[in-house]
C-alpha cells in the first residue's frame, strides 16, 4: 500500500519540491496552501500523516491541528516551520504534534522522520522500488503494483523481476539468476527460468526483457 499524506504549505516552490520527492518514494500527496483548505481536505478524506506548516493563510497550522484533535482526529502530524523558539516548539507538541522539523531542512531527514512515525503508528513502512511511472515493487511485501493495483505475481517471478530491475541496463547472467532464485538445498530448474521470464514479458512487453543468447537477460524499461 501507499501512504496518503496531506501537505499544508503556502510556499509554492517548497510544496512542489515536497510532492516530487515524496512521489518518488510512493507517497500519495494532497497539497493545500491554507488552513481552511487543510481542514476541508481532512474532513473529506482519510490520511496517514500530516505535514503542517505553521505560518499559512486563514488558519495557522497550530490552529488546524488543534481543530483536528478536538474533532477526534489522531492522524500523526509533523510541523514544518521556520519558527525556532522553545515556546513554539512546546506549543506544537502540546497541541498534539508528533514531530517538528525546522526550515531549511534536508529532505532525507524529513523522510526518515516520516518513516519513524509511520513505523510506530502503522507497525511497518513499506519499502518501494520504482520501476517507471506505472509500475513499482513493494519490497516489504514482495508485490508488484501497477498504480495502486496489485498484480498477480508469484514469488519466483518477483525475485527475478527485482534482480532485473535492480541491475537494469546490465546483463544478468544465468548464474546470477540461479544464485538469486535458488538456495544451495534446492534443485535449479532452467526451464522454470524461461517460464518466469515469459510471465514478466506478458506484463512489461517482449522488448523490455532482452535475451542475451547463452548468457542471460537484460531489463531495458
From TrEMBL:
Q: Where is the Response regulatory domain?
A: 4-118
Matching entries from Gene3D superfamilies are given as: 3.40.50.2300, 6.10.250.690, Winged helix-like DNA-binding domain superfamily/Winged helix DNA-binding domain (1.10.10.10)
GO molecular function list = phosphorelay response regulator activity; transcription cis-regulatory region binding
Residues in the DNA-binding region are 126-221
Q: Which UniProt keywords apply?
A: DNA-binding, Phosphoprotein, Transcription, Transcription regulation, Two-component regulatory system
Domain OmpR/PhoB-type: from-to ranges: 126-221
Extract one GO BP annotation from the record: regulation of DNA-templated transcription
Positions carrying 4-aspartylphosphate: 53
Quote the cellular component terms of the Gene Ontology held in the record: cytosol; protein-DNA complex
Name assigned to this protein: Response regulator receiver
What organism does the UniProt record list as the source? Sulfurospirillum deleyianum (strain ATCC 51133 / DSM 6946 / 5175)
